[in-house]
Amino acid sequence: MKKLLCILLFFFCLISCDDSRQQKIACLLQEWIGKEIIFPSNSITMLLKTDTIPFSKPKTQYVIVSYIDSIGCTNCKLRLPVWEAFINQLYSICPGKVSTLLFLHPKDREELIHILERDKFSYPICIDEKDSFNKLNQFPTDMIFQTFLLDENNKVLAIGSPIHNPKIRELYLNIIQGAKVTVDGKENAVQTEVSLDKTTMHFGRFDWKEEQNDTFILKNVGNHLLIIQDVTTSCGCTQVTYSKEPVLPGDSVSLHVTYKADHPEHFDKTITVYCNAKPSPVILRITGDAE
């Protein structure tokens, strides 16, 4: 358990090097690893479209449970296509060994049903209109700490979003498969260096129905190949496309960013680039006002 704490702290501190932030993360992990999650008895499991059944916790060796609150953009937080791809991977690799539960405290039930039908999400969603799950457990307010890997006794084995952080996804899979859990060759990995044309993209004011596009340029200024392992976004409204080929020293790779608002809003989103560069991950931002 102590080893898992160290590994999780390492992954989260990659995102922020601030000492006070690291201390807060360490305290949070100490509080939650090994803690029992309490499930409410009055929630409803809603399947695709209109079918509903009373809530019942799955009887599998592991359960991945994620709490999604009503703050902000529901579609951005859900990222159902990414969840579905991950769940399909889980069930293919570890059939019958792990289940997933997405607990939602929706601000607008009709909007949620629309999103479920639009994305054709085929796995159960737990609707918690009274926010009972959160009231019983008092989850952290930071979205990246609202997903947990539980054992069969509902004890927390690991914390973090496998949807937003590929290292957390890898950690979950390793634990579930019984593989050796290590911090992936941090000291031995061949690293290079990158420079960026910009770290923040300002779209300004625009009609919320209009798609916005721009590009970040990453240049390999080191002496080794630049390899991008993954690129994640904090919002389903943001998509990033890029070449998966290794980048030679002196060459560049373009990250093509597309932002499509679901409704008028001021936005400040992050894009996280995981690569073999110092420092990694590379954090980028896009901001603007969709009116």
Brief characterization of the structure:
This is DUF1573 domain-containing protein. The protein is an alpha+beta fold and 291 residues long.
Strand content: 25-35%
So how many helices?
A: 7
Fold-level CATH name of the largest domain: Glutaredoxin
| Distance between the ends | 48 Å
* CATH arch. level architecture of the largest domain: 3-Layer(aba) Sandwich
Main structural class = alpha+beta
CATH superfamily of the largest domain: Glutaredoxin
* Helix and strand sequence: HHEEEHHEHEHEEHEEEEEEEEE
Low-pLDDT parts are 184-188
Shape: globular
Helix percent reads 25-40%
Please compute the radius of gyration using only Cα atoms.
Answer: 20 Å
Mean pLDDT: 83
Number of E strands: 16
Report on the biggest sheet.
7 strands, mixed
